[in-house]
Specification:
CATH class: Mainly Beta
Radius of gyration: 18 Å
Number of helices: 2
CATH topology: Hypothetical Protein Tm1070, Chain: A
Structural class: mainly beta
Distance between the termini: 40 Å
Low-confidence stretches: 9-34
Helix content: 10-25%
CATH superfamily: TM1070-like
Number of strands: 13
Length: 188
Protein backbone atom coordinates (compact mmCIF):
# COMPACT_ATOMS: atom_id res chain seq x y z
CA UNK A 1 0.00 0.00 0.00
CA UNK A 2 2.79 2.41 0.97
CA UNK A 3 4.77 1.59 -2.21
CA UNK A 4 1.69 2.36 -4.35
CA UNK A 5 1.40 5.79 -2.73
CA UNK A 6 5.11 6.44 -3.26
CA UNK A 7 4.88 5.34 -6.91
CA UNK A 8 1.82 7.57 -7.44
CA UNK A 9 3.69 10.50 -5.93
CA UNK A 10 6.70 9.87 -8.19
CA UNK A 11 4.51 9.58 -11.30
CA UNK A 12 2.61 12.77 -10.45
CA UNK A 13 5.86 14.60 -9.72
CA UNK A 14 7.51 13.44 -12.95
CA UNK A 15 4.42 14.37 -14.94
CA UNK A 16 4.41 17.85 -13.43
CA UNK A 17 8.09 18.32 -14.17
CA UNK A 18 7.68 17.09 -17.72
CA UNK A 19 4.73 19.34 -18.42
CA UNK A 20 6.49 22.35 -16.91
CA UNK A 21 9.92 21.61 -18.35
CA UNK A 22 9.29 20.59 -21.97
CA UNK A 23 10.80 22.96 -24.51
CA UNK A 24 11.37 23.02 -28.24
CA UNK A 25 14.98 21.94 -27.62
CA UNK A 26 13.88 18.72 -25.89
CA UNK A 27 11.82 17.63 -28.91
CA UNK A 28 14.81 17.37 -31.28
CA UNK A 29 15.48 13.96 -32.82
CA UNK A 30 18.27 11.84 -31.32
CA UNK A 31 21.53 11.71 -33.27
CA UNK A 32 22.15 8.61 -35.39
CA UNK A 33 24.82 7.34 -32.98
CA UNK A 34 22.40 7.27 -30.02
CA UNK A 35 22.25 3.46 -30.18
CA UNK A 36 25.97 3.40 -29.39
CA UNK A 37 25.83 4.74 -25.82
CA UNK A 38 29.60 4.77 -25.36
CA UNK A 39 29.82 7.27 -28.25
CA UNK A 40 27.75 9.93 -26.43
CA UNK A 41 28.27 8.89 -22.80
CA UNK A 42 32.01 9.48 -22.59
CA UNK A 43 32.24 8.01 -19.07
CA UNK A 44 31.48 4.53 -20.50
CA UNK A 45 34.95 3.20 -21.22
CA UNK A 46 35.32 0.22 -23.58
CA UNK A 47 37.11 -2.63 -21.79
CA UNK A 48 38.04 -6.28 -22.12
CA UNK A 49 37.21 -9.18 -19.85
CA UNK A 50 39.97 -11.56 -18.76
CA UNK A 51 38.28 -14.92 -19.35
CA UNK A 52 41.11 -16.78 -17.59
CA UNK A 53 40.02 -15.34 -14.23
CA UNK A 54 36.56 -16.07 -12.86
CA UNK A 55 34.31 -13.14 -12.03
CA UNK A 56 33.03 -12.86 -8.47
CA UNK A 57 29.58 -11.81 -9.70
CA UNK A 58 27.82 -12.42 -13.03
CA UNK A 59 24.19 -11.46 -13.53
CA UNK A 60 21.61 -11.16 -16.24
CA UNK A 61 18.82 -8.67 -15.55
CA UNK A 62 15.40 -8.36 -17.25
CA UNK A 63 13.92 -4.84 -17.44
CA UNK A 64 10.36 -4.24 -18.77
CA UNK A 65 9.95 -1.43 -21.31
CA UNK A 66 6.75 -0.13 -22.86
CA UNK A 67 7.07 1.33 -26.40
CA UNK A 68 3.36 1.95 -26.20
CA UNK A 69 0.49 1.33 -23.81
CA UNK A 70 -3.17 0.67 -24.47
CA UNK A 71 -5.67 3.43 -23.76
CA UNK A 72 -9.37 2.52 -23.40
CA UNK A 73 -9.08 -0.57 -25.65
CA UNK A 74 -6.66 -2.63 -27.76
CA UNK A 75 -7.21 -0.39 -30.80
CA UNK A 76 -6.05 2.82 -29.17
CA UNK A 77 -2.43 3.22 -28.01
CA UNK A 78 -0.09 5.94 -26.80
CA UNK A 79 3.53 5.81 -27.97
CA UNK A 80 6.15 6.33 -25.27
CA UNK A 81 9.80 7.34 -25.11
CA UNK A 82 11.76 5.08 -22.79
CA UNK A 83 15.04 5.40 -20.95
CA UNK A 84 16.63 2.29 -19.47
CA UNK A 85 18.96 3.43 -16.70
CA UNK A 86 21.57 1.05 -15.27
CA UNK A 87 23.18 2.49 -12.14
CA UNK A 88 26.27 1.29 -10.34
CA UNK A 89 25.29 2.12 -6.76
CA UNK A 90 28.59 0.91 -5.31
CA UNK A 91 30.68 3.91 -4.15
CA UNK A 92 33.99 1.98 -4.28
CA UNK A 93 33.98 -0.59 -7.10
CA UNK A 94 33.47 -0.60 -10.85
CA UNK A 95 31.39 -3.14 -12.75
CA UNK A 96 31.53 -4.25 -16.38
CA UNK A 97 28.49 -4.24 -18.65
CA UNK A 98 28.96 -7.12 -21.10
CA UNK A 99 25.88 -6.65 -23.26
CA UNK A 100 22.59 -4.77 -23.50
CA UNK A 101 19.92 -6.30 -25.75
CA UNK A 102 16.49 -4.88 -26.63
CA UNK A 103 13.65 -7.33 -27.41
CA UNK A 104 10.12 -6.90 -28.77
CA UNK A 105 6.84 -8.13 -27.30
CA UNK A 106 7.17 -11.42 -29.21
CA UNK A 107 10.75 -11.99 -27.98
CA UNK A 108 12.54 -10.94 -31.19
CA UNK A 109 15.95 -9.34 -30.66
CA UNK A 110 15.66 -5.79 -32.04
CA UNK A 111 18.99 -4.24 -31.10
CA UNK A 112 22.30 -4.96 -29.37
CA UNK A 113 23.51 -1.72 -27.85
CA UNK A 114 27.18 -2.52 -27.15
CA UNK A 115 29.86 -3.59 -29.58
CA UNK A 116 32.29 -4.28 -26.73
CA UNK A 117 31.95 -4.47 -22.93
CA UNK A 118 32.11 -1.14 -21.08
CA UNK A 119 33.37 -0.21 -17.63
CA UNK A 120 30.84 1.45 -15.33
CA UNK A 121 32.74 3.29 -12.61
CA UNK A 122 31.55 3.66 -9.00
CA UNK A 123 28.26 5.61 -8.77
CA UNK A 124 28.12 6.00 -12.58
CA UNK A 125 25.04 5.42 -14.74
CA UNK A 126 24.59 4.07 -18.27
CA UNK A 127 21.47 5.13 -20.18
CA UNK A 128 19.88 3.39 -23.17
CA UNK A 129 17.15 5.28 -25.02
CA UNK A 130 14.17 4.21 -27.10
CA UNK A 131 12.67 7.18 -28.91
CA UNK A 132 8.95 7.79 -28.92
CA UNK A 133 8.92 7.25 -32.69
CA UNK A 134 10.31 3.71 -32.26
CA UNK A 135 7.30 1.57 -31.37
CA UNK A 136 8.90 -1.66 -32.67
CA UNK A 137 9.14 -3.11 -29.16
CA UNK A 138 5.44 -2.87 -28.41
CA UNK A 139 3.76 -3.05 -25.02
CA UNK A 140 5.84 -6.02 -23.86
CA UNK A 141 9.31 -4.86 -24.90
CA UNK A 142 12.27 -5.50 -22.62
CA UNK A 143 15.98 -5.08 -22.11
CA UNK A 144 18.31 -7.86 -21.01
CA UNK A 145 21.59 -6.62 -19.54
CA UNK A 146 24.56 -8.84 -18.69
CA UNK A 147 27.08 -7.50 -16.21
CA UNK A 148 30.03 -8.82 -14.21
CA UNK A 149 32.28 -7.70 -11.37
CA UNK A 150 35.78 -8.73 -10.34
CA UNK A 151 34.96 -8.23 -6.66
CA UNK A 152 31.90 -8.19 -4.42
CA UNK A 153 29.84 -5.09 -5.23
CA UNK A 154 26.50 -3.68 -4.23
CA UNK A 155 23.66 -4.80 -6.51
CA UNK A 156 23.25 -2.26 -9.36
CA UNK A 157 19.88 -0.60 -9.91
CA UNK A 158 18.16 -1.35 -13.24
CA UNK A 159 15.05 0.67 -14.00
CA UNK A 160 13.24 2.25 -16.89
CA UNK A 161 11.27 5.46 -17.21
CA UNK A 162 8.57 5.72 -19.88
CA UNK A 163 7.30 9.16 -20.88
CA UNK A 164 4.65 10.62 -23.20
CA UNK A 165 4.45 14.41 -23.53
CA UNK A 166 3.29 16.99 -25.99
CA UNK A 167 -0.45 16.50 -25.81
CA UNK A 168 -2.96 18.00 -23.41
CA UNK A 169 -2.29 15.01 -21.15
CA UNK A 170 1.23 13.82 -20.30
CA UNK A 171 2.27 10.67 -18.46
CA UNK A 172 5.36 9.09 -16.95
CA UNK A 173 5.95 5.86 -15.06
CA UNK A 174 8.77 3.56 -14.07
CA UNK A 175 9.54 -0.15 -13.92
CA UNK A 176 12.33 -2.07 -12.18
CA UNK A 177 14.50 -4.89 -13.40
CA UNK A 178 14.73 -8.37 -11.92
CA UNK A 179 17.70 -10.75 -11.89
CA UNK A 180 16.96 -13.74 -14.12
CA UNK A 181 20.35 -15.43 -14.01
CA UNK A 182 23.05 -15.33 -11.36
CA UNK A 183 26.58 -16.73 -11.44
CA UNK A 184 30.17 -16.14 -10.38
CA UNK A 185 32.46 -17.42 -7.69
CA UNK A 186 32.26 -16.83 -3.96
CA UNK A 187 34.62 -14.18 -2.67
CA UNK A 188 36.83 -15.33 0.23
Amino acid sequence: MRSNRILSTIVCGLSSLLIAGCTEKNNLQSPAHADEPDSWQKHLTPTTIDTTKPMVIEEEVYVPIYSHIYVENEQRTVDLAATFSFRNVDPDHSIIIKSVRYYSTDGTLLKEYLKTPVLLKPLATADFVITREDSSGGSGANFIIDWVAKTNVLEPLAESVMVATGSPQSMAFTSRGIVIKKGGTTAK
